[in-house]
Each structure stands twice: as C-alpha cells, then as structure tokens.
Specification:
The chain has about 100 residues and is α+β, with helices and mostly antiparallel strands. It contains 2 helices and 3 strands. The chain has one domain. Helices cover about 40% and strands about 10% of the residues. Strand 1 and strand 2 form a beta hairpin. Helix 1 packs antiparallel against helix 2. The chain starts with 9 loop residues before the first strand and ends with a helix.
Length: about 100
C-alpha cells in the first residue's frame, strides 16, 4: 500500500471561486494553489495557461498512472503468473488520455 492519498484527484474551485484546490475522492483538499494567501510565486490554474492546464491534468491523473504502471511492472517481472488483460491495457490508455487532456 502506498502512503500517498488515494485517487481519483480532482481540481475544484473553493466555494467562493477565488482559488483552486486538488481534492481527493472524499472532497478533502490535498493541496491548493496557494493563491488565497499569496504564498507562492507560481500557481497551478487548471483554467490558466496551456502549461498550467497540462500540469493540472498530469497531477490529477497521477494516481491512475501510478496504479497502471504498477500493473505493467508486475506483469513484466512475472509474465508467467498471468496475462496483462485488455482491461489492464484500457486502464493504462485511459490514464494517459486523462493526463494528455483527451478524456
């Protein structure tokens, strides 16, 4: 079991709409963009520049990509113990598509 917060992760605006937070599946903020307190010089705005949007997608998709990568590595280390299923492949493709903004 990993120590990171389980996904899915979703970018949401706070109830006043003045800053972004990355929330877990329970609606608990994992991190916010720091703009509410002017804490950071660089924020991640999921509606901002192309780079910000890409970074936000990549961050939000990381739990799915991590889970998919673990399956690939397990299969590569022990292919004789079971096949890499079509469902596993679809999970990998979906995680990549989300990170690339194609979902």
């Amino acid at each position: 079991m990993s120590a990171h917060t389980p996904g899915p992760w979703t970018w949401v605006k706070n109830k006043h709409g003045d800053y972004w937070a990355l929330e877990d599946h329970r609606g608990i903020a994992i991190v916010d963009d720091g703009s509410a307190c002017d804490e950071y010089d660089k924020t991640i705005d999921p509606e901002g520049s192309e780079e910000d949007r890409a970074n936000a997608r990549l961050i939000a998709a990381s739990p799915k990509m991590f889970a998919a990568l673990k399956k690939v590595v397990a299969w590569l280390n022990s292919p004789e113990e079971g096949a890499f299923s079509d469902g596993d492949l679809a999970e990998c493709e979906q995680a990549i598509a989300e990170a690339e903004g194609k979902q």
